[in-house]
Amino acid sequence: MESVKMAQMACPFLARTPVSALRQMSVSSANSASMSACPHALPAHSTPVAASAGGVMASVRQAAAAASLLESKSNRVAASTSTSALFKAAQSCPVFGHALAVQSVRRLGARQFHSATMAHTASIASTSTEQDMGRVPPRPFDAVPKPHSKPASASKKAAGAAKGVTEEPAPGGFNYDDFFKEQLERKHKDKSYRYFNNINRLAQLYPMAHTGTGEHVTVWCSNDYLGMSKHPEVVDAMKSTIDKYGAGAGGTRNIAGNAQLHLSLERELASLHNKDAALVFSSCFVANDATLSTLASKMPGCVLFSDSSNHASMIQGIRNSRAQKHVFKHNNLEHLESLLKQYDLSTPKIIAFESVYSMSGYIGHIKEIAALAKKYNAITFLDEVHAVGMYGETGAGVAEYIDGMDEMDIITGTLGKAYGVVGGYIAASASLIDMVRSYAPGFIFTTSLPPAVMSGALTAVRHLKTSPVERAGQQLHTRMLKSTLSDLGIPVVPNPSHIVPVLVGDAETAKSVSDELLHRFKIYVQSINYPTVAVGEERLRITPTPGHGPELMDGLVGALKTIWTERGLKTEADWMREGGKAGVGVVGGEMDQLVRAEDLKDMMDRAYPYALDTLSGKQAVKSA
Ligand SMILES: Cc1ncc(COP(=O)(O)O)c(C=O)c1O
């Protein structure tokens, strides 16, 4: 208990906690129970010291030395229940958790990562961590409060602003708070409640992030597929645009928010997809919703045909249009045709589908759907959100790669995934774009994206139009990971794209594996549960990037192997014995990668002579 005494000396909360309570806390396996007994679990603003920022900072300085001792002891003696429980308790304390975060950042500063940027990095990481920790009380990753976990009066007090809906209703009145809690309880019951991890991706330490407690983890599930969010050209463009034009756009596109950068980006996107025009929205969710709802509600008698695996944004747009709709079985051309043929050529029709389905990694049948659209006089709406920047000679997407872009009428994409910024867009004929621009409330009645976002996105699109570096690194790492996991029997859902879904098959286990990866191995991979995937097909969705080289990959593979062995999770062979699930263990279920080996080799030849230092590609190429 040496470290407990040190901790008591440094931390005003621990000092007030009797040693017997600390001892009990340190041996309790029910972490949540010990937390609730511990004064540190109180929100920061309800504690006297944390009420003053100066007080917090002074205490943090005092606590830092003891935190260092506690942390290093906890790391060394990982098996010691008492030390690690105490460490967890300290992490949840606003003062001690902060001190541990600072220590963690300092320790990282000593580690070799990207040597050229190390000094700069440590100071950035440390500063942002301190700011974040000052504002947000650290808490365990999974400490999202469950409904009814505290008496109503206590939670009201803790919230500090419990007014309105949380007050008892007048007799006979609708009880809003009970209604919200009941809805949440349903989510907990069917395991679809979503836990949001606090993950702060560090630009200088890509693909690392610090968590809410300041701990560093490797992110293996980001949609910043190519690391463009931290690309120096993108970041510099955004910084200089802010200096020139300020932070915000200042209005809607119609009123003061339509700048040259918006127009330049739209021209660039139109040219990327070889269309007359493009229109930028605040996100592709908004783009999909606004475009489908506007077109289908305006065209008289319009009928929509939607792939059953379509993203929520398209479903929302289709619903909002109130037009007649048919949902065809995923990637099933016969089903689609059987529905299309029910209508005259004179009926306006839209077929909505995706190029890369993000949770399975499957690819839509672009050319075949184009042929059906032609036959039945429909227009096509292709969501290339997970493909733009990633496929094709200029990064225009899967349609470009398979030479089917010109057969698509509307292509939608995001600026927030491979392009690393935020925003969404559509590209199509001039008249269609002008129609959406003129009628879609989701485009018209909202503040336009800031000029800096436009210039960051423009820079990323232009960069990826000509650079094969990022795509080559991403493709290579995807192949390496898929084949390594498959060799070990870890069940990867077979697919032709850059997504690596690892089948777990149960919601609770998927979440708990994700938690174990985070807590024990410092690896962040989000679990994907119902309703995003079908019940029984729950998975981990892994997205390698050019920055996930062999060293990081070894770490991930080793962690998965350990977890699969220790927990006895189902391997590919196990799934096969059960007849297969989600394509895993299905005889003949293997799939080739969309990007042909010769095209990857060509990209690598062009990319790596000048990319060796910026990516981890050098080692990757050697070991390929
Ligand atoms: C297929 C698909 N379409 C559209 C969107 C929405 O894109 P954005 O993030 O730009 O709103 C997503 C988001 O994940 C998506 O997966």
UniProtKB/TrEMBL annotation:
<keyword id="KW-0808">Transferase</keyword>
<feature type="compositionally biased region" description="Low complexity">
    <location>
        <begin position="143"/>
        <end position="164"/>
    </location>
</feature>
<comment type="function">
    <text>Catalyzes the synthesis of 5-aminolevulinate (ALA) from succinyl-CoA and glycine, the first and rate-limiting step in heme biosynthesis.</text>
</comment>
<dbReference type="Pfam" id="PF00155">
    <property type="entry name" value="Aminotran_1_2"/>
</dbReference>
<feature type="domain" description="Aminotransferase class I/classII large">
    <location>
        <begin position="216"/>
        <end position="560"/>
    </location>
</feature>
<feature type="region of interest" description="Disordered">
    <location>
        <begin position="125"/>
        <end position="169"/>
    </location>
</feature>
<comment type="pathway">
    <text>Porphyrin-containing compound metabolism; protoporphyrin-IX biosynthesis; 5-aminolevulinate from glycine: step 1/1.</text>
</comment>
<dbReference type="InterPro" id="IPR015422">
    <property type="entry name" value="PyrdxlP-dep_Trfase_small"/>
</dbReference>
<keyword id="KW-0012">Acyltransferase</keyword>
<keyword id="KW-0663">Pyridoxal phosphate</keyword>
<dbReference type="GO" id="GO:0005759">
    <property type="term" value="C:mitochondrial matrix"/>
</dbReference>
<dbReference type="GO" id="GO:0030170">
    <property type="term" value="F:pyridoxal phosphate binding"/>
</dbReference>
<dbReference type="InterPro" id="IPR001917">
    <property type="entry name" value="Aminotrans_II_pyridoxalP_BS"/>
</dbReference>
<dbReference type="InterPro" id="IPR004839">
    <property type="entry name" value="Aminotransferase_I/II_large"/>
</dbReference>
<protein>
    <recommendedName>
        <fullName>5-aminolevulinate synthase</fullName>
        <ecNumber>2.3.1.37</ecNumber>
    </recommendedName>
</protein>
<dbReference type="InterPro" id="IPR015421">
    <property type="entry name" value="PyrdxlP-dep_Trfase_major"/>
</dbReference>
<keyword id="KW-0350">Heme biosynthesis</keyword>
<dbReference type="InterPro" id="IPR010961">
    <property type="entry name" value="4pyrrol_synth_NH2levulA_synth"/>
</dbReference>
<dbReference type="InterPro" id="IPR050087">
    <property type="entry name" value="AON_synthase_class-II"/>
</dbReference>
<comment type="similarity">
    <text>Belongs to the class-II pyridoxal-phosphate-dependent aminotransferase family.</text>
</comment>
<dbReference type="GO" id="GO:0003870">
    <property type="term" value="F:5-aminolevulinate synthase activity"/>
</dbReference>
<dbReference type="GO" id="GO:0006782">
    <property type="term" value="P:protoporphyrinogen IX biosynthetic process"/>
</dbReference>
<keyword id="KW-0496">Mitochondrion</keyword>
<dbReference type="InterPro" id="IPR015424">
    <property type="entry name" value="PyrdxlP-dep_Trfase"/>
</dbReference>
